[in-house]
Amino acid sequence: MTPTGRKPGARRPVKRTPEQLARAWSRQLAKKRPGLVAFVLDGLAETNGRPVWQPRLDPTSELILTILSANSADINAEVAFAALCDAYPSTPTLPGASAEPRPLPGWGGRGLLDRPPPDWSAVEAAPLAELIDVIRPGGLAPQKAPRIQAALGALRANGGSYSLDFLADKPALEARDWLSAIPGIGKKTASVVLLFSFGTPLMPVDRHVFRVSQRLGLIPAKADPDKAHDYFLSMLEPDQMYETHVSLITHGRRTCHAQRPDCEHCPLAPRCRYFDAKAE
Questions:
Q1: 158 pairs with which residues across the strands?
Q2: Which tens digit of pLDDT belongs to each residue from 88-134?
Q3: SS3 state at 120
C-alpha cells in the first residue's frame, strides 16, 4: 500500500468536471425518477398557465435592473431603476404614455412604466457618491453602484456603445461567459439577461428556483446555486428553459414559500421529496 492508501500501480481517481457531474445526475434522474421534469412543468401549467417567451426590456436595461434586484425585493429594484431614469434621462417620455406599470414575466414587483431607458453614458460618468444616493432605495447601493458602472464600462469598451445586441448571435455559454467576466456579474445575472432579452437557452437559478428545485429533488441536495445552473443545462431541452424558470420562480413566490410552504395546495406534492422523502 502507498502512504495514501492506494495499492501500488492503482490509478488515481479522475476528478469529474461540473459538466460531467451534471450529465451523470441528469441520467440518474431520468432512470430513477422518469418523467419528473414533464410532471413538474405540466403540473405548474395547469395551475399558472404555460409561459411563452417574450422580451421584457432592452438588454442593457435588463442587465442593470437585474444588478439592482440582487439581494433586494423586486419592487425596491423597480424604484431604484425609476430613480435612474429620473436622474439621468435620455429622452423625454412620450406624451400619452401609460401611467400604469407594465407587468414583467417572471418578475416579482409591480412592473415598470413604458419610458425611455436612462442615459447610460451619464450613469457611467456620474460621481460614485451621487449614483449611490440615486439608487439607495434599491438597497445595497454602495455595492451595486460600482458594479453598474463597471458593467457599463465593459460594454462601452467592447464596441464603443452600451448595446448588448452583439451577444444575441453568440453561443449560449460563450455569451454567458462574456457577461460573467464583468466584476459582480455571475451566472444567474448573465443567464437572466440573455434568456429574457434574446431567448437564449439558459436557465437562471435564483433563490426561488433553487429552493423549489431542491425540494422537488430536481437537483442534488448538496448542490449550490452556482452549480445548479449546470444541472439544469444538462437536464432540460433548450425550449424548456424559459418555461421552467418562469414556472418555478412563480411557484416559489406563490406556493412553495421559504417558510411554511403551502404543500396542501401544491400540484407537485405527489412527487416532491420535501413533502414525501420517498416520492418517486
A1: none
A2: 999 876 566 666 888 888 899 999 988 899 999 999 999 999 999 99
A3: helix
* Terminal CA-CA length for the chain: 42
Cell 448538496 sits on residue: 222
CA distance 209 to 201: 16
Q: Give 95: exposed, middle or buried? Use CB within 10 Å, 0-12, 13-18, 19+.
A: exposed
Contacts of 96-105 spanning 24+ positions with Cβ under 8 A: 104/56, 104/57, 105/51, 105/54, 105/56, 105/196, 105/246
Q: What would the grid cell of residue 202 be?
A: 439558459
Runs of H (alpha helix) within the chain: 18-32, 36-48, 59-69, 74-87, 120-125, 128-135, 141-159, 172-180, 187-198, 207-216, 225-235, 241-254
38 grid coordinates:
414533464
Cell 445552473 found at: 229
For residue range 185-235, list pLDDT tens digits in order.
999 999 999 999 999 999 999 999 999 999 999 999 999 999 999 999 999
Please identify which residue in the block is written with the cell numbers 418578475. 107
Q: Yes or no: say if 67 and 82 are a contact pair by the CB < 8 Å rule.
A: no
The three grid cell numbers given for residue 34, joined into one nine-digit string: 422518469
* Grid cell listed for 45: 401549467
* DSSP-derived secondary structure for 203-255: ----HHHHHHHHHHTSS-TT--HHHHHHHHHHHS-GGGHHHHHHHHHHHHHHT
- Beta carbons within 10 angstroms of residue 210's beta carbon: 20
Locus of grid cell 439608487: 135
Residue in 161, 160, 162, 124 with CA at minimum distance from that of residue 145: 124
Which pLDDT does position 178 carry in this prediction?
94
